[in-house]
Amino acid sequence: NRFMKAKRYFRRALKDRPKNPTIKSVLKSLKSSSSSSESMIHTLKQLSHSFFSDGERRMESAPVAAKRLLLEALRFYQGHLDAYHRLGLAYVSSGLMDKAAQIWNRSFEMSHMMDHKECTSYRYERGSCLREGLLRHKLLHDLEHIKYLAKKQDPKASLLLPGYKTAYTLLDKALAPVESDGQAYEYVVNGKFMDLLGGGEVFKRNWHAIDIPPLSAPPINYLIDSKGLQRWYDEEQIIYVDDILSPEAVDAVYRICTERNDFHNVKPWGYLGAYLNDGFHHPVLLKIAFELRKALPKIFGGHELMQLWAYKYSQTMEGIKMHGDDAAVNVNIWITPNRANKDPNSGGLKVYRRFPPDDWGYKTFNHYSNEEKLEKYFKDDAVTIPYRQNRAVIFNSYLWHKTDKFSFKKGYPNRRINLTLLFGLRGKQKRRRLKSNSK
């Protein structure tokens, strides 16, 4: 029945898009699919991805149809991690936060059942895939995190602490260099070493939940000058606003980022990422995304939430290099208290005010190996916005940007943290000619 339903769907789709090669390929697979398990699995995956692609394309134009197509994608193949990601976002758009969390939790568990190659083949999977490798700064972060929790009398952290201390002491003997995309990674590859980290029950698992009561008021500060900010954004495409969140909300986000252990995505330049699919979907975070669109409707327009993450940085390493994000509007909110920042004139974000040429491919040029070429093109036409806790920087996602140089105090609670929310599909936003840098 599922195959017959799929045939009918793709036959109708072919009438609307007769030259679409993906639809033709799927129909061919449906007609020629044999009864062998390998062939059936291949066809199911292909069907799942086709439904996913169609659903993703309709996320903003037809959200109800998109949700139906994404559910269909998961019916054909329950391991499609990208479909989980987008379906969760569809539920957020409808205000069904608990349903979204259930979808992302299921995705997280599915990722742990997959082999690493398949898991990392999905676009929106960022860090939950199990692997034997581990970067030095990830282990240092986890050790500091467990010490932090142990001081708060957390019983599980106290049990894990001796193993993590031993693991970090043995780190130099266990490191093995690995080359990837021209970057030298130092991965721990010793299986016994990983046992010291709690093995499969702890490593890349969300073993520490926190109890944060529901917020007593909306998380967004509705006293901000929304009309003025929207006019400023329309002119400049780059704005910032202080005290964007309520004090209660920013404190809650800081606790989520410092006490939970959702930071599974490891970056070689000294920072870690926590994504929706990793478990970083606390109701407070989803409520912030939901309320932002209400507070600044002319900026976000009909753009739906497309991604949400937090990055946490090592004080001794670099931040994010120059890049662009795959969205229409980018929101960065800084979370760590100001007392951690040693230089109040730095530590924020540098946004380049020149749009890239239309013929620049997103994937080709949104790669750190092209930074020298990008610097040459953008020159110094940039605005640098200093770090402040609870300051939001909102800008057109076509604009390239990078972390400004930062100097934060030592200690786990002082790690620089930014919360990022991406809204809308790339290519759907306005691209006004920007004025020369005057700020």
Give the % helix: 40-55%
* Class per helix and strand makeup: alpha+beta
Question: End-to-end span in angstroms?
Answer: 62 Å
Assembly type of the chains comes to single chain
Largest sheet: 7 strands, antiparallel
Approximate shape: globular
Low-confidence segments: 178-186
> How many helical stretches?
17
| Sequence of strands across the biggest β-sheet | 3-10-7-12-6-5-4
Order of helices and strands: HHHHHHHHHHEEHHEHEEHHEEEHHEEEE
Which percent band covers the strand fraction?
A: 5-15%
Work out the number of β strands: 12
Mean pLDDT: 83
Query: What's the gyration radius in Å?
Result: 23 Å
Question: Can you describe this structure?
Answer:
- The strands form 3 sheets. The chain has a 7-stranded antiparallel beta sheet. Strands 9-8-11 form a 3-stranded antiparallel beta sheet, with no helix packed on it. The chain has a two-stranded antiparallel ribbon with strand order 1-2.
- The protein is an alpha+beta fold.
- The radius of gyration is 23 Å and the shape is globular.
- The chain is 43% helix and 14% strand.
- The chain has helices at 2-16, 21-32, 37-57, 63-76, 81-93, 97-111, 116-119, 136-151, 155-169, 171-174, 191-195, 226-236, 247-259, 283-295, 297-300, 362-365, 371-378, and strands at 175-180, 183-188, 238-242, 265-266, 271-275, 305-313, 329-334, 349-352, 382-385, 391-396, 401-403, 417-423.
- The termini are far apart.
- Helix 1 (2-16) packs antiparallel against helix 2 and helix 3 (37-57) packs antiparallel against helix 4 (63-76).
